[in-house]
Amino acid sequence: LWDDTLAYVRERVPRQVFETWFAPIRLEALEDSGAKIVVPNKFFGDWLGEHYGDLLGDAIARVRGGPKVDVSFTIEKPRLEESEQSGEVVGTVPKGTVAPRGRKHAHLNPKYTFGTFVVGGSNQFAHAACMAVAEQPARAYNPLFIYGGVGLGKTHLLNAIGNHVAERTDLRIAYVTTEQFTNEVINSIRYDKMIDLRRRYRNVDMLLIDDIQFLAGKERTQEEFFHTFNALYEAHKQIVVTSDRFPKEMPDIEERLRSRFEWGLIADLQAPDVETRIAILRKKSEDEGVTLPEEVVQFLANNMKSNIRELEGSLVRLGAYSSLTAQPITLEMAKTVLRDVIGDKKKIIALDDIQEAVSARFHVKIADLKSRRRSKTLVQPRQIAMYLCRELTDASFPEIGRHFGGKDHTTIMHACKQVAKALEADATLRATLETLKEHITRG
Ligand code: ADP
Ligand code: MG
């Protein structure tokens, strides 16, 4: 039953959502009163309940047959054996003797701490996972795999873990980019120093490795990393990896290595929502001593959506410009100084893209979407397509009507209302639409 339930869910949520939120859970008990599901921690349960509780209840009900099921979450009890062992490892590191060495070799960026990281909806899960690992190395999640697009805070969080641990413990920490690691492997081969390299990496308590996607295609380095990984993992040492891709999306990395990345927890960083962008701008401008008028904050937050590094870069540029010209920052100045970065980069979604995506998702022809045929299998996909056109573009009702074979604007309005109503009642439909939207907006 559980496998079927998961299969049902898998078809209805984006793959990454499934891997992150559904792969780690299991069904503990199913009674008439409800289903009990085991999750790794409280935060996980809260999030899952809020976002996908309905869908889960729905899925179980459909697979089992019968009325909708209430879902509750319980937290996974730590496996005793494991925590005892890792406790021992952490405990036996003699205090005061290893710290200087650990720090010297850590190469951590002191600016990237949890204190300077702004938490919002788009990154709170990754942040919580990193905090858990920093508080309890090798006991919370191992390995921890952080993934997310460029400039969303992977490197920052990885350093934050290192800094947190370095401040509070004497654990030996190695922070390394995959590029550095690759160079070290190459040099070790060239100068016959492989044993040194192995000793160096296998003696740490915590390995933080950044941008692991760069291992793609580098067989020898992968091999070396694989053995390092195994040695550390078996010794209950913490490993944290970042990547701009999901393990399964790295085809040039050996399967045995990819599957290891999935042993622990995979946490993703999403593009920040507008509140988070504003919070980041306020915090950074304060930290940098730049006075940013509210309208400039709004302007930046509304125009730089996908990348926190760019957001930060704009702030720095504005600050520099303002101090060089000895003028206060204004909206006018922001528009001039940043015109090259802000230009019209927004992806324009065409009505055709939407029709295409809907046609593929529901296996109906585009011509049928535009037709007047009223067969059952056509009506809902057609209405969904119309609804998405309204939602994802600036097109007016009459424009959309023209694009659907010359329909009246009232038909489109009616369709939008119907879909909105259906969405309220149907969690599965909501999930389907989310996936579709993601598909369309990503192109
Ligand atoms: P990535 O490694 O994912 O490409 P970085 O960690 O280098 O991204 O982040 C890019 C820049 O944005 C860094 O300067 C980082 O400090 C900043 N940044 C990212 N996320 C946040 C956040 N949530 N709060 C504050 N600064 C952030
Ligand atoms: Mg990075």
Plain-language structure description:
Helices cover 58% and strands 9% of the residues. The strands form 2 sheets. A 5-stranded parallel sheet has the order 5-6-7-4-8, sandwiched between helices. Strands 1-2-3 form a 3-stranded mixed sheet, covered by helices on one side. A hairpin with a 4-residue loop joins strand 1 and strand 2. Helix 6 runs parallel beside helix 7 and helix 12 packs parallel to helix 14. The protein contains 22 helices and 8 strands. The protein is of the alpha/beta class and 443 residues long. Adenosine-5'-diphosphate binds next to helix 7 and helix 14.
Strands across the major sheet, in which order? 5-6-7-4-8
Tell me the strand percentage band: 5-15%
User: Bound compounds, please?
Assistant: adenosine-5'-diphosphate, magnesium ion
Helix vs. strand class? alpha/beta
Helix content bin: 55-70%
User: Distance N terminus to C terminus?
Assistant: 35 Å
Describe the largest sheet: 5 strands, parallel
Rg on CA atoms, Å: 25 Å
Helical stretch count? 22
Encode the helix/strand succession as letters: HHEEHEHHHEHEHHEHEHEHHHHHHHHHHH
Mean pLDDT metric: 86
Family: Belongs to the DnaA family.
Subcellular location: Cytoplasm
GO cellular component, one term: plasma membrane
Pfam families: Bac_DnaA (PF00308), Bac_DnaA_C (PF08299), DnaA_N (PF11638)
